[in-house]
Amino acid sequence: MRSILITLLVVCVSVLADAQGVYKKPAAQQPEPGEKPRRGLFDRDKTPIDKKYLEGACPMVGNKIVWQKYFYADDKSAKQIYDIMLSFLQKMTKDERQTEKSNVAAVNEEEYQIGARFVEKMVFQNTALSLDQAEFAYQLLVYCIDGRCEVVMKSMSYIYEADRAGGGQFPAEDMISDENALNKKKDGFLKGGVKKFRMKTIDRKDEIFRNIANALKQ
Fold first, then answer.
1. Does position 180 have pLDDT exceeding 50, yes or no?
2. What one-character DSSP code corresponds to residue 80?
3. How far apart are CA 182 and CA 189, in angstroms?
4. What pLDDT score does 30 carry?
5. 30, 40, 139, 145: which could join 155 in a potential S-S bond, CB 3.0 to 4.6 Å?
6. Which pLDDT value is given to residue 167?
7. Among 94-98, 127-131, 209-213, whose mean pLDDT is lowest?
8. Of 151, 158, 156, whose CA–CA distance to 211 is shortest?
9. Which residues contact 183 (CB under 8 A, 6 or more apart)?
10. pLDDT at 102
11. Which residues are paired to 69 by β-bridges?
12. Cross-strand pairs, 154
């Protein structure tokens, strides 16, 4: 009897061991060399955010977002800088992303000042299946003196999904300010789609200022 029980115990242990082998949790699939790891359905995107999009990137003057920058051209007079900037802004209104609403709205040849209004297409995603874009409106003001000019970018707003419920025109302050776009720690974005507006707007501002600097170097 005792030998029978021992035999049965050995058989049970052997069966359990085989079952563990059969139902052992498979190891995580490793990506092939050169292949990016696949994110799970509920994994959070932990891609670091460039600090240029975070706290302080959209400065407030009063209750409005305003970017101001000086551009130096030591070898040029106020009139020369004015002529360069007027030509630059006029060409900019003809850019393919601009709408018919973009124009150089005011000039002061005596004070070397220019005011331009732009309404352009801001594309977030463009695929064969969908086009996600907004109209981005803003003003550029230019003040020229000998050796430099000041450029101010202000009065920004967006027209987004105007034909849908919840869409319409939105001032930039409601969309991309630190208060309305960033979390409490100021190290990430709030939910609701504000990330794409803030990043695209900052990128566009940087592009415009970079182009101005290049124009004045010529």
1. yes
2. H
3. 4
4. 54
5. 139
6. 86
7. 127-131
8. 151
9. 189, 190
10. 98
11. 151
12. 139
Tokens of 7: 């035999």
How many CB atoms lie under 10 A from the CB of residue 17? 10
Give per-residue burial for 138-148: e unless 16+ CB within 10 Å, then b. bebbbbbeeeb
Residue from 57, 73, 67 nearest 214 by CA = 73
Residue 185 structure tokens: 């720690």
Average pLDDT over residues 47-62: 94
**Whole-structure pTM over 0.85, yes or no?**
no
Give the pairing type, strands 148-160 and 67-72.
antiparallel
Indicate the SS3 state at residue 188. Answer: coil
Q: Does the pLDDT of residue 8 top 70, yes or no? A: no
Tell me the C-alpha distance between 184 and 12, whole Å: 58
CA dist., res. 200 & res. 133, Å (int): 11
Which SS3 state, helix, strand or coil, does residue 163 take? Answer: coil
Helices 78-92 and 194-217 cross at an angle (nearest 10°) of: 130
Q: Which of 192, 187, 149 is nearest to 170 (CA)?
A: 192
Residues 6+ apart with CB under 8 A from 70: 148, 149, 150, 151
* Average pLDDT value for the chain: 86
